Amino acid sequence: MIAISTWNFGLPANKVAWEIIAQNGTALDAVEHGVRHCEADPEVRSVGYGGLPDKSGIVTLDACIMDHYGNCGSVAYVKDIKHPITLARRVMERTNHVMLVGEGASQFAESQGINREFLLTDDARTRWKQWKKKQEFSEINWENHDTICMLAMDSTGLLAGASTTSGIAWKMHGRVGDSPIIGAGLYVDGSVGAAAATGRGESVMKMCGSFLIVEYMRNGATAQQACIMAAKRLAQQQKDWSEYQVGFIALDIHGNYGAFSLKDGFQYALSTPEGHKLCDAQYLETP
Ligand code: ASP
Q: How far is the CA of 23 from the centre of ligand 1 (A)?
């Protein structure tokens, strides 16, 4: 059993996930409920309720979930649902589709008995108003993005992954990043392993980051080697890579994990039978 997730807010999320897998619950339940904890926390300003809005002052959320067997569900540009990860799971389990966006996703939520909620907190509104005065768009800022991605393996050896975010703060209205895109922000293949990405979504989408990591593992790389290879591939493909952050996590079917980022500062939370800890990821050297 193991759970790995992104950033320091991954630690409390992992603890929720761990309670589930430690009691022989499924990895799928663990990742859903783990990241729900983060979605509900208004102090986390880049995920769920309390997330910072786009440049028009509207919070839009993206999420996806994937199981051991390749089933997946995703929602994007959702304005009024507090737990997009649960909605993504409903898309996976209760529709014939993989992805629903915007108003259609919210209508589907209502049909599932999930109420619409207003997501912009007073704190997020105040920050947005301050930003509007200056109209600064900074892509590299610890405060203005970061997604929770979680990968877990349960006591039966099954894998699952989840990703949920409010995306990059002050983004263009309508912008969707990598986090709800299967193969970019998250990918799980029960015969190989799982991977997820955080950071500048546009860069991850351009190289199908999570899918690539799983394919590297399929071809013999360890989880750690695969994360490093993906970061190097990104840097090779995108010449401006040193100007932004991207972090990858991976987990193989034997329970080996990996984490690696472009720049210093990426942290991941790790939970094993030995306990929970927050770790600093290794990163690519600047050229
Ligand atoms: N990947 C997210 C996005 O581009 C942001 C992040 O994880 O930092 O929306």
A: 32
**Amino acid present at 180:** P
- The beta strand positions in 90-219, using DSSP E, are 99-101, 148-153, 159-165, 186-189, 193-199
**CA–CA distance, 212 with 222 (Å, rounded to integer):** 13
Mean pLDDT of 125-150: 77
Q: Give the pLDDT score at 137.
A: 56
CATH class of 2-283: alpha beta
What tens digit of pLDDT does each residue of 206-222 get?
999 999 999 999 999 99
Largest CA distance in the chain: 53
Burial group, residue 168, by CB count within 10 angstroms (0-12, 13-18, 19+):
buried
- Is the separation of the CB atoms in 169 and 145 below 8 Å? yes
Q: Say what the pTM is.
A: 0.96
pLDDT at 180 over 60: yes
Amino acid letter for position 5: S
C-alpha distances in Å from residue 103, one per residue of 73, 78, 236: 16, 7, 38
Q: Domain ranges for the chain, please list them.
A: 2-283
3 state SS of 109: helix
- Pocket, ligand 1, Cβ cutoff 6 A: 145-147, 165, 167-168, 177-179, 198-201
State whether the Cα torsion 142-146-148-151 is positive or negative: negative
